[in-house]
Amino acid sequence: MFNQIKVNTSTSAAYHYNVGTDLLDVVCDFISDEIGSAKVFLIIDKNVHHHHIEKINTAFESRFERIVTYVVPPGEKSKSFEQFSSIVEFVLNQGVERTTPLVAIGGGVIGDLAGFVAASVMRGIPLIQVPTSLLAMVDSSIGGKTGINHSTGKNLIGAFYQPKAVFADLNFLDTLPEKEWVNGLSEIIKYGMIESPIILKQLQRLISENGFTNPVQWQPIVEQSAQIKVDIVSRDVNEQGVRAYLNFGHTYAHVIERLGEYSNYSHGEAVFAGMYGAVSASNKLGASIDLNELDHFKSLYNFKLDAIADHRDEFLSLMRKDKKAKNQQIRLVLLKKLGDPFVEEVGELDLIKASWEDVIHHFS
Ligand code: ADP
Ligand code: ZN
Predict the structure, then answer these.
(1) How high is the pLDDT of residue 225?
(2) Residue 300: which domain range?
(3) Are residues 220 and 322 in the same domain?
(4) Which CATH number is 30's domain given?
(5) Is 80 exceeded by the pLDDT of residue 325?
(6) How far is the CA of 105 from the centre of ligand 2 (A)?
(7) Do 226 and 350 reside in the same domain of the chain?
C-alpha cells in the first residue's frame, strides 16, 4: 500500500514522492518501466546496509542483470569531497551510461552525497531517492538539494538536482535508533507550527500510544509532512519567497549547531530549541502562541544549552552571518499565529536577545 504525491518543478520533469510499506518491488518496477536499464548503482548507508541488505538484494537481483553496490560510512563526515570523489571514481570505473540509474538508500547524508554524484557524473544520470531516516523522508529527500560540506561551512558545494522519483518505505524505520526519530520529529513539529497545527495533535497521540515502535502508523504524518514540503518547494523551487518558511526555528538552530561545533547538538535538537526562539520573538511582536505546543514534546529531547549560554555575546553576530541573511540583517521566520508564518527583518536587537534568553531558560 502506498500513496503518491506529485512534485512539480520548474527546471525538470515532474516526479512522484511515494510513501508506504514494502516499496522495494515498486522501486524496481519503476526503474525497469521508466528507465529501462539492466544495470543499477546502489549507494547505501553502512547501517542501512547492515540491517536491510538482504531484502534489498532480493528485490533488485530478481530484476536487474548488474547491481553495483557502494557502501558509505555513516555520518555527516561522509558529506566530504573525498567521499564524493571516491564514489564518482567508483561509478566511472564500473562503467556507466547516461541512462544508468543511481539509487541513494540512506538518510540525508546519503541523499545529499549520492544525489550530487548523480548530478555530476556525465552532467547527470537518473537519481532515485530511497530515504530511510525519518528526517530524510519528511525533509531532505524533497526539493532537489544535493551537495557536500566544505571546511568553511556546511553544504557549500552542490547543485539543485531533481530525482526521477522518491520512495519513502516506512519499513526501513524499524531499525532507526530513537535519537534519529527525534531528529526527524523536529521538522514535523515545524510543519505543524508553520502550516498545519493539527499535525501537532496527531503527533502527540501517536507518540503517546506507540512511541517510536510502529513505523507503519506514521504513514499519515509522513505523508502530510511531505505534502507540506512539496507544496512549499513547488511554489518556490529556487528559494525566493515561501520556501523561507521552511527555515522556521533554523536561524536560531544554525547558531546553536555552530556553537556546538556541529557535534554537541543534532540538527533536530537545535531546531527544536530554535523554535522556542522563533515563538518567543513572535509573541514579543504581538502573537500569542502557547508554548505548550512545543512543551508537549520536550521530554523526548535530552539536551541542555548551558554550554552555549557562555557564548551569548556571539548570538547576534552569528545570526547576521547566517547564509539566509541578507545585507547582514537578521531575517526571521515568525508566526502571526499557529500555522500563519511571515518573514521579517528584525531590527530590534533587544527583542532578539530576549528571545535567546527564553531559549536558554527552557534548556538549562
Ligand atoms: P539524516 O538525519 O539527515 O537522515 P544521516 O544520513 O546521517 O542523517 O542518518 C542518521 C543516522 O541514521 C546515520 O547514522 C544512519 O546510518 C542512520 N540510519 C538511517 N536510516 C536508518 C535505518 N533505516 N536504520 C538504521 N539506521 C539508519
Ligand atoms: Zn532542518
Answers:
(1) 98
(2) 179-362
(3) yes
(4) 3.40.50.1970
(5) no
(6) 20
(7) yes
C-alpha–C-alpha distance, residues 315 and 317, integer Å: 6
Write the residue with the smallest CA distance to atom 27 of ligand 1. Answer: 176
In this prediction, residues 171-182 reach a mean pLDDT of 97
How close is the Cα of 142 to the center of ligand 2, in Å? 12
Sequence-separated contacts (24+) of 28-34 with Cβ below 8 Å: 28/59, 28/60, 28/62, 28/63, 28/64, 29/63, 30/128, 30/164, 30/165, 30/167, 31/63, 31/64, 31/101, 31/103, 31/128, 32/63, 32/64, 34/164, 34/165
Q: Which residue, 175, 194, 218, sits at the end of a domain?
A: 175
Please name the residues in contact with 284: beta carbons below 8 A apart, sequence gap of 6 or more: 351, 354, 355
Is the predicted pLDDT of residue 12 greater than 90, yes or no? Answer: no
Residue with cell 541542555: 304
Atom 26 of ligand 1, nearest CA residue: 176
Residues 100 and 211 in one domain: no
CA distance 256 to 261: 9
Task: Tell the residue nearest (CA) to atom 7 of ligand 1.
Answer: 75
User: Residue 100 C-alpha to ligand 2 middle, in angstroms?
Assistant: 31
Task: Count structural domains, the chain.
Answer: 2
Give the catalytic positions in this structure. Answer: 123, 145, 187, 229, 239, 243, 247, 250, 254, 267
Closest-CA residue to 103 (of 125, 77, 74): 125
Task: Looking at the CA of residue 139, tell me the nearest atom of ligand 1.
Answer: 3
299 and 345: one domain?
yes
Pair (188, 90) in one structural domain? no
- Centroid of ligand 2 to alpha carbon of 229 (angstroms): 12
pLDDT of residue 152: 86
Q: Pocket around ligand 1: residues whose beta carbon is below 6 Å from it?
A: 45, 47-48, 51, 74-76, 106-110, 132-133, 135-136, 140, 172-173, 175-176, 180, 183
Instruction: Supply the pLDDT for residue 241.
Output: 80
pLDDT (0 to 100) of residue 321: 85
> 70 and 205: one domain?
no
